[in-house]
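1st attempt posting a full record on here, be nice pls
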Amino acid sequence: MLELLAPAGDMESLKAAVLNGADAVYLGGKEFSARQSAANFDRVELIEAVRFCHAYNVKVYVTINTLLKNTELKGALDYASFLYSIGVDAVIVQDLGFLHLLRRYLPNFEVHASTQMTAHNLDSVEMLYDLGVKRVVLSRELSLDEIKYISKNTRAELEMFVHGALCISFSGQCLMSSIIGGRSGNRGRCAQPCRLEYSLNNKRAYHLSPKDLSTLEFIDKIKELGVYSLKIEGRMKRPEYVATVVSAYRAAIDGKLEKSHIKDVTQIFNRGGFTSAFMFKRQGSEMMSYKKPRNWGTYLGRVTNVRGDFARVKLDAPLNDGDGVEVFDRGVGVVVANMKKDGKVVKSASQGQEVEFYLKGAKRGDILYKTSDAELIDRAKESFSGKDVERVPIDAYIKVKKNEDIVLRIRDIYGDEVEVKSEPPEVAINKPITLEKLKDSLSKTKDTPYLLTNLTADLDEDVIISVSRINSIRREGIEKLLDKKQNKREEIKIHFNLEKKIKKDKMNLILITGRQDIVEGVYDYFDEVYFGGDNLRINNGDIESLINKGINVNLWIPEIVLEEEKKIKEEILSLKDNGVKSALCGNLGMYKYLIEKGFDVKLDKGFNIFNSVSTEVLNNAGSLISYELNLKEIKDLVECTNADTMLFIYGRIKMMVSRQCFIGSSKDEGREECGLVCQNKIHYLKDRMNEEFLIVPDRYCRNHIYNSKVLCMLEDIREIQKTGAKYLVVQFLDEKVDEARKISRAFREAVDMLNHSEFMQTDSIKEVLDMLKGKITKGHYYRGVL
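the predicted structure (as tokens):
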């Protein structure tokens, strides 16, 4: 069966999902959820949610899909144990270390890998399966062909997004909100800077804001892919949205989709229409919502005249009292009331008619959109909170016999059955209990998910039971059925703590870059060199040329590997034959391949190393610690692991990688046929504070956005040493060779001095600090993220 998975940000949305046809819901608790802005569920509400969903045979998946600090691991494990005990069907995770702990302490608890784990190729999915994940939520950037290939070749269940808001960055690899405002998307607190206005090539627009995904009109193609679950995004959306979208996808999956479903889904929320993202091909500018990042609604008509605060409007669509109307992207809007047609107040008006209503601030010629439809909202609300909401049919059998315990059996349509007993009935003197009275009392289930549809009774003619006792037996039976459906388990007590290790390593300096000219100019300042990375269009040279020149260089593989996968695997085999034995890798799938080929692998930023446990999950020669931890947290992480660790101490922090070409799309290009409008050079994205972020295109037309400032910890190198990290990473991106040489020399001198327990600001260090004055940031080293 193809599962329809729906979002639930609160109890009302959960009921909207279940009662409109969801097979499963995913939700977050108040703890460790990647949607901290949603209402979410406390522990009592979580129990209620599981009992309600399971009554309808709907599964419940709870998100613990944030990165976890050392201090949070024990609490997260205790929380997971609670979820397991109350019958939650699976937990959705992001953190690699937490995944490892779940498999150790709660081996029977089903685990799904969040889209935040950036699984986008077959090897990454298979690697997660080997780590104990049953289901993998794929990255939203994949095409249908790519999904189908993974589906046909993996052992894991696959889940894919089919509707809702898109992250323009690969999920799990975005630091934009974190770096700009300290609100980490990896911690559930994304401030959505992608929905802000920017200037790119002197054109102001919402350059990073995509339309929402919709697959309603090609759901049959998706059904052929072999995936297990279709996921609707929207834990922060209102319950009426959930009801409308879920009911439409239920109809589509069941082969009953109608034009009215598409119309309703468009009306309830869209950002200038919908997109199929990358499922068929690159859409360029057609994928983006450049003019407005919020809900557009549907086109209503134009203002033909204005009289005071009242607007006359020629309607291109029906309009009713209570509908929301907005002048397009001017912040002028109103809920329609006392609408007039031909001078008379009317409740509704049709397409082609002219009406007049209060709309302060409107101007003649304004374009109006209907942003909410009162009739649709009422209809959606009725589906989950009306008098006739769907309930689960149950059959009941009751035995009421003299001198025998009363027996009530209840069986639901899914085959689950319970039995309760009560003391024998009394002998009736004049008014014995009747089948009708029994049925009347046993049918009083409106405060439960159940509806009695059939009653069988084995009833003596001369017995009596009070109505209160029948009600009590019914309540006990329903409660017992709900208990059985909930599937409670024993809560497992978890004994976990991290122990500090004693170790003292000298610091080693690592260079990473994709530019041969840089390597040739600075390699002798570094202990290790890793070359390659994202195959950026500003890069030059190749690793074979460096090897041929006698430079000891290793391979650097980025976090995103799609079209280039085959080429990289061929390169790995070739380099192995040339004696290269080490790699820095940011991609889970490529890590799997490298290990299989006998490489020593260091883990790059793509692994989101946030705690000590995550450094030891995979066999590695070193782990790059997340850019989002502060010095105190880093020190704690390093002290509690036996693994070698790395810190990023110089370079531009990559804030985002996207399969979308912002540069091409801004010029109505950026589709499959690359017009090279990027001119193989860096472009700049300017925000409202006039900060200029670098957009660097790669050879596969993905765009990489880097911070406007360079992270530089040269003057703070003693604080870095105190963390205990073994490897310090320097990355060169757009520096000139002579600048890179000065920076490399300064860091080499600083590290060498500290390795000999001394430090002073040499002329080289002072020169670099002066050269970079006003251009640097300390990242999160002194602030961290919540």
